Amino acid sequence: MLVKFRLNGKDVEVDVYPNEILLDTLRLKLGVRSVKRGCERGECGTCTILLNGSPVNSCLILTPHVEGAEVITVEGLEKDSKFKELVNNFVNEGAIQCGFCTPGFLLTAYTAIINQKIKTVDDVKKSLEGNLCRCTGYVKIIEAVAKTALK
Amino acid sequence: MFYKLPEIEYIRVSELDEVLSLLSRKEDVKVLAGGTDLVIDMKIGRYKPKTVIDISGIKSLRYIVDEGDKIRIGALTRMQDIIESPVIREKLPVLAEAVSMLGSWQIRNMATVGGNLCSASPAADSAPPLLVHEAKIKLTSIEGTREIPITEFFTGPRKTVMHKIELLHEIIVPYDEDFARTYSYAKLGRRNSFTLSVVAVATVLKVRGRRFEDVRIALNAVAPTPVRARSVESFLRGKEIGEEVIEEASELVVNDISPISDVRASAEYRRHVSMVLVRDTLLKALEKSGVKEVSK
Ligand code: FES
Ligand code: FES
């Protein structure tokens, strides 16, 4: 079946199976490789995308479900100044090791920051509870986000 | 791709009438609201429906309406909507608190309150607060509507009183100022956040003078369905407030629950922490009621 939606500011139309998962459509059909396949069951957040502005797990979404919706991945935020600042802080704080979790963290943290959800370091932790990182131990990620949100 | 989904017919609807008519005609259907349970259940093979009806586009089912003596919550209201709603924060804070501990932000942005109830997991996070507030569930089908007390809604793990042709339409929560204000919620999982319940307890109460006027307690994950702790409640009603009474009451919770051992905890541990959390929530709710010194 044909599904149309907006991906990073562009209209896309893609032929999918009714039981196709958005994570697969993005990675395999639309070439968006920043969206990572982790647990495939909503637990790790590496597949995070923004759906109509909210972070969600693309591994739990049937692609036909996003008909008419707006989907944003890190590729769509490259020119955003707040996003660039966040990325720089990730780099400077050492919040990236293997980098597999990074796109997911960036999308969740960015949305929390621009929606003014972060007033304290606890808010950073609460916002990021759906993103797992196997490398950093989180401290540096939390610092990078706090630096961007609270400075 | 680690998981393979069953082949399905996918139908998306934007009006209530459409889904009701489909439900009355189609066999082997699952309704998709937020999808955070259903998609996983299809991935792990728990459900293999022929048809999935995606109702997330029915805008008229996403609302929180304050009618003074009751609050009506549309089935498609997202968990995140509940947390951010000023009405819920003021008039049903125990629900906002419970739901804020459900899943992750990503999950709460998709998951709906109707979906959480229809999945009917024994560990459903929205259930204990709605049980203590004695919410009603409005079910609609092509044949009409009916209202069921939530205390009668769940019939077993993943089972409810809903008929095949019915849709969970809305949740109606009576507003009671005392219960709303004097509450406590505690959830114990295997870690502090983004976790399933080992047990969770919602407690609301009313105090008159030095006595318990009324107490309502509900737990999840310790029985085939979320349950009320009726023996604790009736024991406490009318009793003078004191540490010993609370201690004795909390132990009675074992009569109300029938926990199993699973990957998250043993039955014995669940019985133990149920008592502990019943006691803790009683004490915390009492603090909110303004009762200062609980001990004799
Ligand atoms: S791959 Fe989606 S949450 Fe892990
Ligand atoms: S940097 Fe490797 S998983 Fe986070």
Would you mind describing this structure in some detail?
The complex is a heterodimer of chains A (151) and B (296). Chain A has helices spanning 22-29, 81-93, 102-114, 121-127, 139-150, and strands at residues 2-7, 10-15, 48-51, 54-57, 70-72. In chain A, helix 2 (81-93) crosses helix 3, helix 2 runs antiparallel to helix 5 (139-150) and helix 3 (102-114) runs parallel beside helix 5 (139-150). Chain A has 151 residues and is of the alpha+beta class. Chain A has a 5-stranded mixed sheet with strand order 2-1-5-3-4, with helices on both faces. Chain A has 2 domains: 2-76, Beta-grasp domain (Ubiquitin-like (UB roll)); 79-149, [2Fe-2S]-binding domain (DNA polymerase, domain 1). By secondary structure, chain B is an alpha+beta fold. Chain B folds into 3 domains: 9-54, Uridine Diphospho-n-acetylenolpyruvylglucosamine Reductase, domain 2 (2-Layer Sandwich); 59-174, Uridine Diphospho-n-acetylenolpyruvylglucosamine Reductase, domain 3; 177-288, Enolase-like, domain 1. Helices cover 33% and strands 25% of the residues of chain B. Chain B has helices at residues 16-25, 38-43, 79-84, 86-91, 93-100, 105-108, 113-119, 127-132, 177-181, 230-236, 243-251, 267-289, and strands spanning 9-12, 29-32, 51-54, 64-66, 70-74, 136-141, 144-149, 154-156, 159-160, 167-174, 183-188, 199-208, 211-220, 227-228. In chain B, the strands form 4 sheets. In chain B, strands 4-5-10-6-7 form a 5-stranded antiparallel sheet. Chain B is globular, with a radius of gyration of 19 Å. The relative contact order of chain B is 0.11. The model of chain B has no long low-confidence stretch (mean pLDDT 95). Classes of the chains: A alpha+beta (151), B alpha+beta (296). At the A-B interface, strand 4 and helix 4 of A face strand 1, helix 2 and helix 6 of B.
